[in-house]
Amino acid sequence: TIERLYRELEAPLFNIALRWTWVPALAQELVQDAFMKLWSRRLLVRKDTASAYLYKTVLNLGRKHARRRTNWWRVQRRMPDQEPEPGPEAFSAEAEIRQAIDTLPDDQREVLLLCEFSGLSQREIGALLGIPAGTVGSRRHHALEKLKREMKGATG
After folding, report:
1. What span, in angstroms and rounded, lies between the C-alpha atoms of 104 and 146?
2. Cβ-contact 129, 57 below 8 angstroms
3. Are 63 and 55 within 8 A, CB to CB?
């Protein structure tokens, strides 16, 4: 049932959404939106693929939000006599980590977040994203290496 899925997947989905939005209330909203989409498509989504549907939906919603946020910052920077307001990351002790994660390409970011927060195996993540399990491992490795480089660069 959807209630069982919510109890089981709400926390990992929230953690993934949070790493796309960096705003807890917005991350919760993305998770709720994913479950609403599942509910509206409940006659079309098979029970055995419902979890994958939810993960994919949260990833898509997170990616969409990140694109909108990037576009908003671009518009703000082009407006004369107006400095963009700092986002929540500017006030956080974790700003460097957030910025480093934000620099990852979407495909690496998706794999890293799923590997770290979903509890899914590489094979399951590969099936979810439509890529081989080896590619999941490779993307995760490259994402972690990029994060290490970004963090070294940020600290000096």
Report:
1. 7
2. no
3. no
DSSP the chain: -HHHHHHHHHHHHHHHHHHHH--HHHHHHHHHHHHHHHHHTTTTS-GGGHHHHHHHHHHHHHHHHHHHHHHHHHHHHHSTT-PPPP-GGGG-TTHHHHHHHHTS-HHHHHHHHHHHHT---HHHHHHHHTS-HHHHHHHHHHHHHHHHHHHHHHH-
Tell me the whole-structure pTM to 2 decimals.
0.69
Which tens digit of pLDDT belongs to each residue from 52-76? 999 999 999 998 888 776 554 544 5
- What residue type is assigned to position 70 of the chain? T
Amino acid at 4: R
* CA dist list (Å): 82 to 14, 85, 99, 103: 34, 9, 23, 25
- Whether 61 contacts 30, CB under 8 Å: yes
